[in-house]
Amino acid sequence: MIMLIFVFVIAGFLGVELIAKVPSQLHTPLMSGTNAISGITIVGAITVTALNIEGPIGTALGFLAIVFATINVIGGYMVTDRMLGMFKKKK
After folding, report:
1. CA distance 57 to 53
2. 83 CB contacts (<8 Å, ≥6 apart)?
3. Are 77 and 34 in contact, with CB atoms under 8 Å apart?
């Protein structure tokens, strides 16, 4: 359990450092790639939840993972669509 918390904290610090150094021109392609990764997270969370290895706690955590990853994907695509809409020619 301590190793998992350690990996989570390191991943958080690494994520903040990487996102802070991304130029604004690359933000939209990066957002699209992140949405694809979150889609893979949803599939993994569904698989783990369906296996139900850890009992009710595992099922509850799997359900939360599905909900949060879905919110992330939908929100990411909405932001990406809005950003790409800024580059369209006005009629």
Report:
1. 10
2. 27, 28, 31
3. no
Kindly give, in sequence order, each residue whose CB lies less than 8 Å from that of residue 1, ignoring residues fewer than 6 positions away.
none
Of 30, 34, 19, give the one whose Cα is nearest residue 72: 34
Mind listing the pLDDT tens digit for each residue in 52-83? 777 888 888 888 988 988 888 888 888 878 87
- 8 A C-beta contact, residue 70 and residue 44: no
Q: What is the DSSP letter of 26?
A: G
Q: What is the pLDDT of residues 27-55, one digit of tens each?
A: 667 777 777 788 888 888 888 888 877 78
Closest by Cα among 27, 34, 45 to 73: 34
Taking the whole predicted model, whether its pTM rises above 0.85 is answered as no
